[in-house]
Amino acid sequence: MADDLLSIGQFARLSGLSVGALRHYDELDLLRPADVDRFTGYRRYRAEQLETAQVIARLRELEMSLDEIREVLAIDDPAERRRRLDRHRARIEARTHRLQRVLHHVTRISKGDPIVSRPPVAPEIDNASRRALAVGLFNYTWTLLENPDRTPEQDDEMLHAAHASRYHWGEVGEAVNLARGEWQVARVYSVLGRGEPALYHARRCVEINEANDDREDWDLGSAYEAMARASAVAGDLAGRDAWKARAVEELARIKDEDDRQVLEQDLATLP
């Protein structure tokens, strides 16, 4: 009955929302009044609408946008509602971390640090040193790959070493060095079970090899093997089989028996 309805003023006091906010939420179809007088335009609400209004007020205090609040209110599944709130929490956390960094820099400046500081200049590294670093890091990565008892910290070290080797080859190496660097990075990601980056680097290995006429006769087969392995890790079994078939075709083009055996052994270990 109309007599049981609350005026917008009463509803505002009970819900913790302002009259202006209630009018705005009505316009946005976020919280419609139960009745609007067609002559005066006065809005009135049911008492059971208070819970929804209080939820809106609380979520606004927690800096959730009105669009997000509308979505949360429309969700009946408690688990999905918690997931939405968890995403909002993650955004708040990221903003908090950013503000902590800002606070740190403002504090340093207030204590005398220059407002604009020059970034440190990277030291010059001669080409011979870069080559030595590329080779040494490549070999060190292999040492870690062959260790069956790696710790999580060594997994990280292995990944960083492979990327660092590829970086230095990118500064001083030829196409064959770049392709083999990409192959190793792809192998590391595959060993770590990370399909997407494994596929990316394996694909780069294929692209560089296919564009390089000076590659060794086993390089292209190894690139196809890398794509097969990465596809398997990514869950693409059809892709694995297709790339493996291409690698097998390349075996006949490898003249050296030892080189051919290395590729055969790699193909035999595909997931």
Describe this structure in words.
The chain is mainly alpha-helical and 271 residues long. 69% of the residues lie in helices and 3% in strands. It contains 12 helices and 3 strands, in the order E-H-H-E-E-H-H-H-H-H-H-H-H-H-H. A 3-stranded antiparallel β-sheet has the order 1-3-2, with helices on one face. It starts with 5 loop residues before the first strand and ends with a helix.
Low-confidence stretches: none
The Cα radius of gyration reads 31 Å
Q: Given the structure, what is the number of helices?
A: 12
The general outline is: elongated
Mean pLDDT: 93
Largest sheet data: 3 strands, antiparallel
Helix vs. strand class: mainly alpha
The run of helices and strands is: EHHEEHHHHHHHHHH
What proportion of the residues is helical, as a percent range? 55-70%
